[in-house]
Input
Amino acid sequence: MVRKLWKELCECFEYRFFTGIPFEGSSDLYSAMDSEIMHYVPAANELIALRMASGARVSGFKSGVLLEPLKINRLDMGFNIEFEIPILIITSVKDILLRKGLYRDSSLSKVVAYIEKNKKPGVFLLE
Amino acid sequence: MRRYTGVRVLTQIILDCDLAVYIGKDICKEAYQYRQHDNNLYLSDEEEGLISFALGMAIGTDKRIFVFCEDQYFIRNMSEFMQAGVSKCKNFVVVLFVSGGYTNVSNTPLIFNEVNSQHGILYNMGFMVHNYSNFFKQHKNPIKHIRKFWARIRGPLAVLLPVDNRKKDMPVVELSKNMTATKEFIRNKDITGYSYVPPFSIEELALGV
Output
């Protein structure tokens, strides 16, 4: 199931660069990562993860960030919105208390379509 | 040496195929006076995470990324520098202007000059370190010499350049916050990087080679 998700994300939607911080409920995601189709860099903290993915996106590579739901609320997304850098944020749906104004959906295709169209960060809720 | 002299000298050495990222209001203003090019990115707000942003760009391209910032930015964002150091990113260079004070706030002192070994910190983080403390006193034509060094450098490299706290009143300029030129420059395949291979071959990965 998770392996299929990575395959869809990397091969259909062409997201290749990922970074982030492991969180509760993400172990399946991490164990299903495949270095043949994606590249993952462990980050020191959430902001570094977000900015690093943004930089890779500016270089032309679609990027995603794996983050804990509560940590997303503390992140400053103003940089991405100001410079129109779309980023896919992947998080677990558990205890979701995301702040308002941040697009989120449990359908990967909808989130990807939103962020590519609006050039803003969007959250994919992993069920 | 004054900081604006350092900015003037070092920005002249950057090649047209390199990307220069300037962090901080004063450095941006100084750099803007001396070098205006598509491959300049001015980030004057000094918000957190800008080193990581530059690192992300370096990961995704074979062009060299030069980041210019002050020691106060280093002190506040050491974890970012650590991330850059351990990345082993060969096309990432950071130039630290070491003034030992907050130049934007009446030169109030900064703790960076009190540490035992400034270059030791950076070296242990994973950077190669160039210390230009006496370089400008010893060489009559420093631009020529540094250009020669920088033609062969491999990152992650940290350049320490001690500067004094004196400032020059630069004209007020409206720095463009448009990232479009930077995006176009960095994605332009016709401008090749300076014989560097990116540490992570994402491009090959994307092509399935």
